[in-house]
Amino acid sequence: MLSRSDDLLHELRSSLNRVFVQDDVIVEIAGQSITNIYDDTNALDLLKIGQPVKVIYTGAGVETR
Questions:
Q1: pLDDT tens, residue by residue, 8-19
Q2: Could you tell me which of 23, 29, 12, 21 has the C-alpha nearest to residue 65?
Q3: What total number of domains does the chain contain?
């Protein structure tokens, strides 16, 4: 059985696969700094499915919002 975090992560990954490319790194989700997998999970726990989210990531060393 999938947890709420798993559902959100799946939805986020599905939508982000259209935006991100290999080697991009998420550094912030909805104002929460992401430095490890635990930060990622904690940030996702604060979200609601269908809620717009601001994601900041680096690609080729350049930060993108």
A1: 666 666 665 556
A2: 29
A3: 1
